[in-house]
Amino acid sequence: MIETTNNSLDASVDSVEVARFAEAADDWWDEDGPFRPLHQLNPVRLDYICERLCAHFGRNPRHLDSLKGLRILDIGCGGGLLTEPMTRLGAETVGADAGEENIEAAKRHAELVGLDIDYVAATAEDLAEWGETFDAVLNMEVIEHVADVNAYMTACGSLIRPGGGMVFATLNRTLKAYALAVLGAEYVLRWMPRGTHDWNRFLKPSEFAAHLRAAGLNVDDLEGVKFDVVEHNWARTKSLDVNYMGFATKGAE
Which 3-state string (H, E, C) describes the chain? Predict the structure, then answer.
């Protein structure tokens, strides 16, 4: 259990973004609610996360406890949509989010389903200041919502133990991403509330890679994610034009 101290408003925290997600905190586990796109995306995200972590740490992905013994941080965990599956696979998980409302929602759901998860209302900077370290950090669809990318990524990098890794995901700053992820998803299809994403905060893969290198990590893999309008589901793809995921590692000392 993480021992917390009074946390201040860190450089990477965008209070407007935190408040926006806090307003919908009670709906995190409603599969038909405002977080429906994340529920639909979750199988693809989990498949990629497990594949990369198992390959990196020499685990068998077919085992139900394939992540046992690993300490994993889900930063910007929201209601715990990824934190809970990591726990079910045997990992010692910590879910951290700057929004206290999100953390309370995550705690309630974990208790409801009988999972022991260490949830904490904290930022990456807080965790770094407290001296926490992890085998892996999940940095999924968070970076496009932070105020100071450099401060955030520096903190995230310091949280990873030598030889550990980071699984990350975000959106590319392309016209195609603006058309599909902003105009299409928010204004036409109304999959999520308007204003959820600011296209100017999207990062090109090369920009994300530069931030990772500055934080002491190297990109080992990049893969795209697309929505199949015919099958009405998400799938992995080679194209990085809109959504993309990746895996980066920290050298062993």
Answer: CCCCCCCCCCCCCCHHHHHHHHHCHHHCCCCCCCCHHHHHHHHHHHHHHHHHHHHHHCCCCCCCCCCCCCEEEEECCCCCCCHHHHHHCCCEEEEEECCHHHHHHHHHHHHHHCCCCEEEECCHHHHHHCCCCEEEEEEECCHHHCCCHHHHHHHHHHCEEEEEEEEEEEECCCHHHHHHHHHHHHHHCCCCCCCCCCHHHCCCHHHHHHHHHHCCEEEEEEEEEEEECCCCEEEEECCCCCEEEEEEEECCC
- Residue 132 token pair: 């926490």
- 3 belongs to a structural domain: no
CATH number, residue 111? 3.40.50.150
Whether residue 43 is contained in a domain is answered as: yes
Tens-place pLDDT, residues 114-136: 999 999 999 999 999 999 999 99
Number of domains in the chain: 1
Domain-located, residue 10: no
Longest dimension (CA), the chain: 50
Its domain, for residue 226, covers: 15-250
For residues 253 and 164, the answer to whether their CB atoms sit within 8 Å is: no
- List, for residues 177-220, the tens digit of each pLDDT value: 878 776 655 544 555 666 677 878 899 999 999 999 999 999 99
